[in-house]
RNA sequence: GCCCGGGUGGUGGAAUGGUAGACACGAAGGACUCAAAAUCCUUUGCUCGCAAGGGCGUGCGGGUUCGAAUCCCGCUCCGGGUACCA
């Protein structure tokens, strides 16, 4: 009897059974040990693509494996359903973003189900659901009350082609718009921010405790960019009340300062170019001496320079090469080096950024390459304060060495000189030790419709207030017009923007900006722990039950943004007692899967190089496609989708059919060979051991190869006369080992072989230790490190026995010139190495 | 520029100091078949040899070790991140 495996029918059947039986639904009163496995919730862009297939295959496999190991696994699913594409579609097609998004969600949900991935669907969440909007707004209000949300003016990205404001992540690294390719411009707008910088140190230190890929942790550390140094004040010559504060990480090099630089946006630029500075009365009031000599003419030159810099795109501004040397202009002002009392010239240059440190630097061309480059262009002196090694021929020397030309610092190391210089400054009240971060506050305002409205009203009398909880959620109206004007439809809406002040009851204006969609993804994993709570976003007790996420799975592209924001939220909400005090980190363990590439670039809808999973669901089936994604290599590696992929998927399908045939056909041995039965049993139990280890270390490709070997061994056992109990055992083990990976076929086979039982509720197999220890080992005999002979030996072989066996081989002896070894290295029972 | 990864057969990859190339894909040959598909069997790193067997081989050059794809030093090529952060 050979039954044909009907892929489509069987996969549909089991998908229905899993959904109806609710075996992957978990509740708070579950008595099994708990765990929480989560895939990053997706933006619903329609049917799943290969990246989703890979992601949810890893997630599903973890859920099923842990369940078979006896855990109650929280496995929820949701949709990151706010965002620009739906709004752009609305502008194009006039279909409302909600209608568009709901349709895409249905497509994605359906293809995730066709993959056979199991979730507790009762907990499904969508960012655009009014209840989720309400919780987001409550959380925003709490952050606002705690001073962690504030409004300030800031430059935003504006795409002239799309006529809209863009999120940072939609701007390419070369400063162009991700969609239209236009060069993005800067505009100043009043914006809402989250004060993530006040958690900079916590976020940095928290990384140490996380079981995350080192790569991701390094990226976050660099992004936070903590640096320690000193701030000091440089007096401006001729302006007795004015000084310019600079930040440096190298206070030890202060004696090498030959000029100073301020950013074009520095407030001092405004002062020296304003007309009032030419006013005689102002000069007397502010004690200006003749040393201060900015004339109207210089002032105009300076203004011209600053304007020319502001006209540059961000890309051009950060580019300085040999063809495009450093730009700057002399201010005609001098500042005093506090260490030497000497005056040095003050320049304005755009290689100094207003957004970092104090927006002003002391320039030390001897020990900083950027300062060196600038000094060469403007012919400024260069003084070395660290002795470079003999024969050093570079420009700036940034290495270690002895301090020189630095008076009381001479002879010290850089580190010693740093702390001595800082104490010197502090004793004289001229400067302080200071720590700076590259991390900026998180700009969350979006001038868009399809996002969570910021629940704020502005009153002329009472100022800014949050919308009272009873009035939440603030929902965007449906009767808006989607036009490509760049202005949010909400701002144009006559009624929405009008509000009542919650404090005085008078007329007020409503905030029309919505939140960045990364706000939604910063707490959705908390909601999953308490999806049925209608009173609050989540309760402390539910979070104590399930958080933190034990295994988080997603793409490396979220290494900084989402993963940093979610960490910030968890810490901030912990400090506000909205999540348990002890919960500081949301994701204990993170896995970042590899990318699917095609022709060198990421496979994506926008690149038009999608290979749809649906065609495989319709053909070889979900199991074969899942197996392919698991088998092609280590889960974290990128994969290039070539013409051979289809052949490999076909191979996976062939393997599953091979398993099916051997499992459904009754085996009646003709002549039983006891040695073959023993061999098969030993092999089976070795594979249990290996596969279990490999599952736990995320080496799924080798789990698959182990399962293939076991299948080959079963066929061999059958043709060589293994008894039926050893064959049955091997087949059952094979089905269990494959069950987390290819769930449909395994469920079907187990059900056929075991009278309707559910394989995914079976206990995970454990190897029989007695069988493992009775296994014959291969003893490799090396002569001078080269393999010359092999013997099948007992695991307990002694050194004497191994040596005697080796020396008994003519072949081994022929490589030993005088018939004996001067030294023997034993690694029994695997290896013996004879050195002549 | 700086910071990470990585380089193993025709291809995807295995091997965490101890048999390099597991397991697959592809290819070649064979069995079954009127034929094809499906399935099964054999071969498949390079090279010398009729064979037995030998030599070479994990990007390149050195080192440590009885033994190195694996550890260390220098180089090279490819991929990713980041970009004047003082």
UniProtKB/TrEMBL annotation:
Provide the protein's localization: Cytoplasm
State the reactions this protein catalyses: tRNA(Leu) + L-leucine + ATP = L-leucyl-tRNA(Leu) + AMP + diphosphate
Report the residue ranges that make up the Leucyl-tRNA synthetase editing domain in this protein: 221-425
**Carries keyword ATP-binding?**
yes
Q: Where is the Methionyl/Leucyl tRNA synthetase domain?
A: 36-177
GO CC terms of this entry: cytosol
Its GO biological process annotations read:
leucyl-tRNA aminoacylation
Q: Where does ATP bind?
A: 605
User: Pfam families, per this entry?
Assistant: Anticodon_1, tRNA-synt_1, tRNA-synt_1_2, tRNA-synt_1g
Identify the residues that the record assigns to the Aminoacyl-tRNA synthetase class Ia domain, covering every copy.
Answer: 439-638
| Similarity comment: family membership | Belongs to the class-I aminoacyl-tRNA synthetase family.
Q: Which HAMAP family match?
A: Leu_tRNA_synth_B (MF_00049_B)
Q: Which PANTHER family match?
A: LEUCINE--TRNA LIGASE, MITOCHONDRIAL, LEUCYL-TRNA SYNTHETASE
Name of the protein in question: Leucine--tRNA ligase
Organism (species)? Acidithrix ferrooxidans
Designated gene of the protein:
leuS
